[in-house]
Amino acid sequence: MADEASIDTPADGTGEGVRRRDFINIAAVSFAGVGGLAAVWPLVRQMSPSADVLAESSTEIDISAIQPGQAIKAVFRKQPVFLRNLTPKEISEADAVDASTLRDPQTLEQRTKEGHKNWLITMGVCTHLGCVPLGAGEGEVKGEFGGYFCPCHGSVYDTAARIRKGPAPKNLEVPPYEFTSDTVVKIG
Amino acid sequence: MSFPWANHYKPSHPFMQWLDEKLPLPRFVYNAVGAGYPVPRNLNYFWNFGILAGVCLMLQIVTGVILAMHYAANTGVAFDSTEHIMRDVNWGWMLRYAHANGASAFFVVVYVHIFRGFFFSSYKAPREMIWLLGVVIFLLMMATAFMGYVLPWGQMSFWGAKVITGLFGAIPLVGEPLQQWLLGGFSPDQAALNRFFSLHFLLPFVILGVVILHVWALHIPGSSNPTGVEVKSESDTVPFHPYYTAKDGFGLGVFLLLYCAVLFFAPNALGHPDNYIPANPMSTPAHIVPEWYFWPFYAILRAFTSDFFFIPAKLMGVLAMFSAILVWFFLPWLDTSPVRSGLYRPLFRKFFYVLLVDVLILGYCGGAPAAEPYVMISQIAATYYFLHFLVILPLVSSIEKPEPLPYSITEAVLGKDDGAVLSANPAA
């Protein structure tokens, strides 16, 4: 380095090739670019669900009062959940269908917990555009397959909350849940 | 830029001369919308709608900023604060109705402005950039209007937000995380309402910025005109002031009469009664529809009822809805005819009116329940919509024989142009 080469002339003195200034430019802009990207990350991430919203995403529900044939609406992640105590007739209706012929092929076993086949627990959110289907409340229309009926665009779900007719692409979603006892369900 | 014969700004008062040296703002106004801006002499009333759109934007900004002084973006009180504006705030009812109906008026004006562009091919060179910026403004307007409609936190607000953000959920792989990112939760709630309010306040000023670019780009080639023939000489133009300030002023008066008639005599005619019910995440209104200005695009969204090859119906609907506007970006290059104005394009003109009817049909279907026969009509109308832009326009441009154009704007207006003889001789 004793030569004291100028930062504006190439090291070999021919007037071509890489100058020291090129290196400094690239290094400075790269450094600023990485720093800029790092600064953008918090601006993007602040949009995601915050800690308190995520903290609400687990809920416990006492199901002891729900008689066979009844259903209740609960709230999970600020969205409705249907908890339904199926009658033996509704279970046999669901089992009588060949699952492979369905739009979203699933059996009632796959959609319930082992030993709790009468407990159908699904989100009350139509898989078409997110409306709340009817059928969980007392006296509501259950649709021609005895499960749920979405009034928005006419999607019909059966007694296993599987899509049978209408525009919805999927069965009503089964949220993650577990039985903490025979009468208490923890969703989320 | 301006034409060489444009009037020059000559301030006579010493203060104006002093100001002109330090900050030539009066000069800028003089050259932009004053006597220093020569404009084609034959503009018809369809050319009023650009100014009207600007007036609507200012109206929305003024009423909106005032409403924001009385509104609270909190799910617990948003609905009540809206009713507080309606019942308690002095003149609050008028300001809110002015803002809500102002949005409708803005879209009416902008739709006329856009279809003016379609008919007179205002998007053609050298005005492509004006058109592209205009489409950007329209997209921003749609986003702003959608978020504004969510703020009162009524049933339609909530379920509109749910359905529209649900559209993003249709995107493969990233859809659901993207939807949660947009909402800041799993369904519309406090986080979503608060950010929609923030963005609804910001976006009008972004629109204003793009409008300034839009007008800047316009002032480079100058306004188009009903003949589509470019300005050739001074006799083709008149100064913007007083000629078009007067004409725009008259148009503005007519517009305000109609706007005020709706505002004072039918302020809820374009709204939905369901939005006077507070948002309830547990119960969906029987018939969810967006505001009327989204109906044509909503109809295209719902037109896809079965899977298309390997693309799910829901995703296909979303793609088609966005494409319906994005296709406008390509319009300057899809319409290859050298003639601009629809007045001289017999075949193009017929298809223009078919498109107009087609969009009206789509609009009607978008507001109707998603049942037959509306679904099938939407499907046919949506297909035709894309056919028009992607097939018919390029085809018409290549096979059509346009009618003879006037030599100049002056000839179109006066029946003769003395300049035509003079300039024809040296060429001969």
Please tell me about this protein's structure:
The complex is a heterodimer of chains A (188) and B (428). Chain A is elongated and about 90 Å long. In chain A, the strands form three sheets. A three-stranded antiparallel sheet of chain A has the order 1-9-8, with no helix packed on it. Chain A has a three-stranded antiparallel sheet with strand order 2-3-4, with no helix packed on it. Chain A is α+β, with helices and mostly antiparallel strands. Chain A is built from four helices and nine strands; from the N terminus they run H-H-E-E-E-H-H-E-E-E-E-E-E. Chain B has 428 residues and is mainly alpha-helical. Chain B has two domains: 43-231 and 239-288, Cytochrome Bc1 Complex, Chain C (Up-down Bundle); 289-409, no CATH class. A two-stranded antiparallel ribbon of chain B has the order 1-2. The longest helix of chain B is centred in the middle third of the chain and has 30 residues, at 190-219. Chain B is globular. The relative contact order of chain B is 0.12. The A-B interface holds A 47-50, 53, 57, 73, 75, 77-80, 124-125, 128-132, 151-154, 167, 169 and B 159, 162-163, 166-167, 180-187, 189, 191, 195, 281-284, 286-288, 302, 305, 312-314, 370-371.
Radius of gyration of chain B, rounded?
24 Å
* E-strand count of chain A: 9
Q: Mean pLDDT of chain B, rounded to whole units?
A: 92
Helices of chain B, by number, come to 17
The succession of helices and strands of chain A, N to C, reads HHEEEHHEEEEEE
- Strand count, sense and closure of the main sheet of chain A? 3 strands, antiparallel
Sheet-strand content of chain A, in percent, reads 15-25%
Distance between the termini of chain A: 65 Å
Structural class of chain A: alpha+beta
Tell me the CATH superfamily of the largest domain in chain B. Cytochrome Bc1 Complex, Chain C
Low-confidence stretches of chain B: none
Look at the structure and give the mean pLDDT of chain A: 85
User: How much of the sequence of chain B is in beta strands?
Assistant: under 5%
Order of strands, widest sheet of chain A? 1-9-8
Q: Specify the helix fraction band of chain A.
A: 10-25%
Strand order of the largest sheet of chain B: 1-2
Helix share, percent of chain B? 55-70%
Query: What is the fold named in CATH at topology level of the largest domain in chain B?
Result: Cytochrome Bc1 Complex, Chain C
CATH class of the largest domain in chain B: Mainly Alpha
Largest interface: which pair?
Answer: A-B, 25 and 30 residues
Number of helices of chain A: 4
